[in-house]
Write a structure and sequence with these properties.
Helices cover 31% and strands 18% of the residues. Helix 2 runs antiparallel to helix 4 and helix 2 runs antiparallel to helix 5. It is an alpha+beta fold and 279 residues long. The protein contains 10 helices and 10 strands. The radius of gyration is 19 Å and the shape is globular. The longest helix is centred in the N-terminal third of the chain and has 21 residues. Bound molecules: 2-oxoglutaric acid. The site of 2-oxoglutaric acid has 11 residues, from strand 2, strand 3 and strand 10.
């Protein structure tokens, strides 16, 4: 547990800014999260007395009934989204000793920390644009510390049609990228979703991209400075994935900011990092 990553894995993470760790989580830990989602969907179907058939729990079909639920009322999808981050098994995974060991090892720190409000379960619904994350780095949307880490893990077997996350390989090495606060092409995107990279096309075209097709229980470890975006879900199923963010109390930038959070904590990027925002 002291050193979960091999030297090769550490080197690959330092080089690429992200790393796939197959079977990082126990099947039972992930299944417990899927069971929680299944339970929430069932409770909503019952509460709203909907004629939606929900099959018994199985890991492959844990979200059975969800497409019918949001077809009935899209707002119920938001209820599932908010409830899912309060599933006890999910919080246990967020705060797990194995995450702490990775942060200690990768950041060489004795001061690992969990980003309050920096964890959740994304539900990327088929053909929905509003909550799709465009090219971004996590730091401006999260703060906490410049050397934070995202633990990203899919709850469904990833396919090209589901729109896997795309990464700009090695982009973390170029530091913080300037951003605009509004997405002119998508004005309904607000907060962190509205941030767009300045000179996005030119910046992104400097890098090779990778979009790993991972399985449930695999981990994708992501540097807070790595450029990445959500793929487009062109399938008939929602893409369920966990994001769990940690940071480092000992990082100088984090200490200077008092480890505050960004948008979700009510803080303004322009007030904290005026140099990052372009008009
Ligand atoms: O899962 C996704 O689509 C994107 C996730 C993301 O951008 C993040 O974890 O920062």
């Amino acid at each position: 547990m002291n050193a979960p990553l091999s030297d090769e894995q550490l080197a690959a993470f330092a080089r690429d800014g992200f790393l796939v760790l197959p079977n990082f989580y126990e099947r039972a830990e992930v299944e417990a999260v899927q069971r929680g989602v299944h339970l929430i969907i069932g409770l909503l179907i019952e509460q709203h007395q909907l004629a939606i058939e929900q099959t018994d729990f199985a890991p492959e079909t844990f979200d059975a009934g969800y497409q019918a639920l949001i077809a009935h009322d899209r707002a119920l999808g938001g209820v599932v989204y908010d409830a899912a981050k309060q599933i006890p098994a999910f919080i246990r995974l967020v705060a797990s000793a194995q995450h702490e060991a990775v942060v200690r090892q990768v950041r060489g720190t004795d001061a690992p920390a969990i980003a309050a409000g920096g964890y959740g379960i994304r539900i990327d619904n088929p053909c929905e644009e509003k909550f799709r994350a465009g090219w971004h780095q996590d730091y401006p949307a999260q703060f906490r510390s410049l050397d934070g880490l995202v633990f990203w893990s899919s709850l469904v077997p990833m396919t090209d049609e589901l729109g896997p996350v795309e990464f700009c390989v090695g982009s973390h090495k170029d530091g913080l990228a300037p951003v605009r606060e509004t997405d002119l092409e998508n004005p309904d995107k607000t907060g962190a979703y509205g941030l767009t990279l300045a000179d996005e096309t030119a910046r992104v075209s400097k890098y090779k991209t990778a979009a790993p097709l991972t399985e449930p229980c695999d981990l994708v470890l992501v540097d807070f400075l790595t450029l990445h975006r959500s793929g487009e879900n062109r399938s008939a199923r929602s893409r369920w994935s966990m994001q769990m963010r940690w940071f480092n109390f000992a990082d100088p930038t984090g200490k200077r900011l008092g480890w505050v959070g960004s948008f979700a904590a009510g803080n303004d990027l322009r007030a904290v990092h005026p140099e990052l925002v372009v008009e």
